[in-house]
Inverse folding.
């Protein structure tokens, strides 16, 4: 399918690996030039070179911490006029409600709520002026099905969801479409970390922890970053102009939620 976005320009945050890279690769395959951000310069530059060579698009790597004002300023300075924004940041650590203090919550909000909002506020005015834009926020299944051990993520990402719910309806008349993608467990470093936590807490091997989690997923496997990226690219396409302010769950059927 021709997504109609060849020649567009996208910023993809946390795009050197995992779900962010899946989105970057799918957009590149559709002919989109990329400004690719991540914190680690070495992995980022390697990913940028691989994507540029494979898909023949321009890829500008910007090593910066997108959760800080300084990092966002660095990315925005390199970005120029942007048509597509994919926000993404690593989730805060798991724990118990009693483990966290105010600083923990502020850090979670900065990374998973305020940073995406700041990027939208910086880039959407230009999209609106040009009459076209796409924003996809990578959040979490915990927005619709809160996970007990991920209270920090539940709180911060739900705040972003609330912001998007109103904002998406305000900017859609100007041709700017915002949606959220809610990943369940995918085969990424985050899954490895979470399985490691279960392994330690339950005294089982990481492999056993993974196998145990897979039994809760009707699809019978962890998600694939390539599949995730394909949905992201579709939401960024010309075909998605009537999908506004939605929270799209990609969890292999793990959460039985009817609405």
């Amino acid at each position: 399918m021709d997504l109609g976005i060849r020649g567009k320009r996208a910023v993809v945050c946390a795009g050197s690996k995992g779900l962010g890279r899946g989105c970057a690769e799918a957009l590149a395959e559709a002919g989109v030039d990329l400004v690719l951000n991540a914190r680690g310069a070495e992995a980022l530059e390697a990913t940028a070179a691989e994507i540029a060579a494979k898909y023949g698009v321009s890829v500008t790597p910007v090593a910066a911490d997108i959760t800080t004002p300084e990092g966002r300023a660095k990315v925005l300075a390199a970005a120029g006029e942007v048509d597509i924004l994919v926000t993404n940041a690593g989730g805060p650590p798991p724990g118990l409600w009693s483990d966290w203090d105010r600083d923990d919550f502020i850090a979670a909000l900065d990374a998973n709520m305020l940073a995406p909002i700041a990027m939208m506020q910086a880039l959407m005015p230009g999209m609106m002026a040009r009459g076209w834009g796409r924003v996809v926020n990578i959040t979490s299944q915990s927005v619709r099905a809160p996970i007990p051990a991920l209270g920090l993520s539940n709180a911060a990402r739900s705040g972003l969801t609330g912001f998007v719910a109103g904002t998406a309806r305000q900017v859609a008349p100007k041709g700017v479409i915002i949606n959220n993608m809610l990943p369940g467990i995918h085969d990424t470093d985050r899954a490895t970390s979470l399985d490691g936590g279960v392994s330690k807490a339950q005294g089982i091997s990481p492999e056993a922890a993974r196998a145990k989690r897979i039994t809760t997923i009707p699809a019978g496997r962890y998600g694939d970053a390539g599949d995730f990226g394909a949905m992201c690219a579709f939401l960024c396409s010309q075909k998605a102009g009537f999908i506004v302010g939605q929270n799209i769950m990609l969890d292999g059927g793990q959460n039985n939620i009817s609405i």
